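Input for the complex:
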Amino acid sequence: MSSPLIPSPGVRSFAVWRRNFRVWRKILLPSALGNFGEPLLYLMAFGYGFGQLVGDLGQLPYMAFLASGIICSSTLFTASFEAMYSAYTRMAGQQTWGAMLNAPLTVDDIVLGEILWAATKGLMNATAILIVAALLGLVADLRALLALPVLAIAGFTFAACAMVVTARSRSYDFFLYYFTLVLTPMLLTGGVFFPREQFPELLQDLAYLLPLAHVVDLVRPLLTGGSLHAPLLHLLVIVAYGAVGLLVATAAVRRRLVR
Amino acid sequence: MQLEQPLATAPLVAMRGLCKRYADRSVVDSLDLVVQEGECFGLLGPNGAGKTTTLRMLLGLTPPDSGTIQVLGEPIPERARVAREQIGVVPQFDSLDPDFTARENLVTYASYFGLRGPHIEQRIADLIAFAHLEGRENVAIPELSGGMKRRLTLARALINRPRLVVLDEPTTGLDPQARHHIWQRLRELRDAGTTLILTTHYMEEAERLCDRLAILDAGRIVASGTPRALIAEHIEPHVLELTGAGADTWGADAAPDTGVRIHRVGDLTLLYTAKPRALLERLDASDQRYLHRPANLEDVFLKLTGHDLRD
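Predicted:
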């Protein structure tokens, strides 16, 4: 509220985070089932179904390739869903944010708290997939644990970008634009299901304009024991998307609610 | 010691020259409003008069286009967060958290004020009792009645022991029992020295609760003062309400009488006068249907804001 552009959230952001965590804890069982069950089903179905047709990718079994991709796309969708549908419900539907704004919380606190929460859900999901992948023998070594901080940052970035859409949305239907125009193209060109090298070069370059390809390029080597290429550059792009997303989302929610 | 005197008597809320426009519509127009500590202040006005916008500006949720706001010694909206540490809010529309039980709502709301841990437990137990919700602490919000939700919302607003409580239409849509319960609670708060600012459509609510009130129309304050002073200033003490056949001709006949003011609303003819005796004798001699009552705040309100519907 004080600065015209730069978000200035405070420690009360964690009250927002904690509120969402408390609600999530109530539905712990179905949540955990989804977290573990879904990736397991995907890996089984695609891995055995496709895997038989595809065989190995270089020295990499398709299942291991797929697992290191799905952990990224799953973080993308978990964080995005939370920052869109769930956050929108709290903003527009059930006035959770309205109640917070009557207390000593600001829009900046709420936006940061919600993004942190969505990132946390993304991370919890990623952790579950990592455990499943490790149990299936699809993880090379302990370096895989380094993928979790990367995915935590990625979750923040995906949530921040989704929050921009939420701030501008007038109904749930509006999110379909973001799915069709941004998330689906990013998913299909990001190298989750098949190597990006299959695409024409132009499309390969274009894929790097969006953050998912960078996340995949960081996470896949960490899970499968490959070597990292330009990790700092990839990280920089992800962080930049997250920072700009937070900035734009905060400004957009302020304009929507503080008027 | 002398220096501290002006601070102690500084008003709790001071809004000066406030203006707010949305597109081409002026919602609040040159509004001045001062509320002293310990007062119960009412903001009356038809729909769209600018009541909610005024409250939002007071809380720092709507920045004014011009004018200054000071609440609890803090400039608003710059230090609204700090001021809100000492304010309780009962919003017009239910904003209880449907994902939580009644008790969890209080726990969660306390955390928004940075209040956690064992010492808040007693406060929550007291507030559950205050809201008359003992035995329903663990009921989900959608299962509470409208009156219970309202009581819980009021209790929630008190979690931080506020010096100022702001209530936007606190009893709209409640049955008489629930309204009386809320009124009783608000009187208790007022008697304990808490400053109250409320908006309402109910004139009797304003008359019963408010020490002072302002009538707002089209973003401007058209009158302010104590309820009694407002009635005395704007309306003759006796009101005769004439209905049914002949009401309008009766009104016309009474007009020549000095000191009778006539107002017609649909099929209702209102006669306002300081000396009703002669009129009453003539009415009793005829078979005209009528009601004789003292002037009230609603008469003031309708005189100042008109009888046209506001949508």
